[in-house]
Amino acid sequence: MARYAIPIILVVWLCAYLYYSNHQPAYIIPETSPDASSMHAPKPIIALTPSLTETLWALDIEHSDYKLVATSPFTNDARADSLIRLQSAGSLEQIVALKPALVLLHPADSRLKEQLEAMHIPTLSHAMDTIEDIESAIINIGKQINKRTQAHELLEQIHSDLKANAIHYRKTETHPGILIIVDRLDARMLQFYTAQSPAYLADLVRGCGYEVIQASQNPWARVSAEQLIELNPTSILFLAHDSDDAQQIASEMRKLYPTLHAVAHDKLFVYDDSDLSVPGPDIAHSQSKLCAWLHKNDT
Predict the structure, then answer these.
(1) Sign, CA torsion 236/240/242/245
(2) Interior CA angle at 151 toward 150 and 152, to 5°?
(3) Strand-pair partners of 103
(4) Distance between terminal CA atoms of the chain?
């Protein structure tokens, strides 16, 4: 019997092989790899300014191949509450730890841009100083996140809204000589930061029917107390951080500069809507609110 044991085993094995090779099991375990589940995961993206963050939202970043994971500490939108807050300076290690597929930043952060690109982390830098800057950022970011159609539609809407605002407020009397003060640069209010053409703020105010005073050839410029007195603007639009700040600005300006034409003739307009200081896709809406407020108070 022993001599037949091995042949019998071989026959049984052969029969089993032929049976199972021709009958697939009812359940097949799918072939997977460690990276299969992450192939379709959204790619992390970081925006280091409020304006760039707002641009991503306007381009419907939520429905794209990217996921916004971090933004600036100065982004006030409620949608940013769940995001990580990163300072532009000193945040290299935090950014690298997030393994972003793209980092959006301001051109002033050139050192950070160089460091990230040296580590093969893609970057895209855009300023938002002028309306042309804003338009360029929308187009380039839209192209980068595969939202070209949305970018062009968004630009068309912005152009339409700005044109409608300009047409509406051209019907009113043009108000000459308004100086735009973006902020004070010291507690004693002896240095100011101003906006003039081609800064986006100047274009928005001009669209409200006002002529903007050019304090400098630069779009954003410092103005001393002496220069302010020499300019002696007919009107002043002073941007405040909030309502309490607005009251303090108005009080200090009346105390320190009572002889300025704008102050003496009650043409000091202190505006406390922070949306205006965030250049981006919502500029037409910000302009609408500003124009309505200015014309209501400038009576």
Answers:
(1) negative
(2) 95
(3) 46, 123
(4) 119
Question: What is the C-alpha separation between 84 and 169, in angstroms, rounded?
Answer: 41
- State the 10-residue block means of pLDDT for the chain, 299 residues long: 44 41 41 47 95 97 95 94 89 94 96 96 96 97 96 98 92 76 95 96 95 93 97 97 95 97 97 92 96 92
Indicate the pTM of the whole model.
0.82
Q: Say if CB 230 and CB 293 are below 8 A apart.
A: no
Amino acid at 276: L
Q: What is the 3-state secondary structure (H, E, C) of 187-212?
A: CCCCEEEEECCCCHHHHHHHHCCEEE
Matching CATH number, 41-154, of 3.30.70.141, 3.40.50.720, 3.40.50.1980, 3.40.50.150: 3.40.50.1980
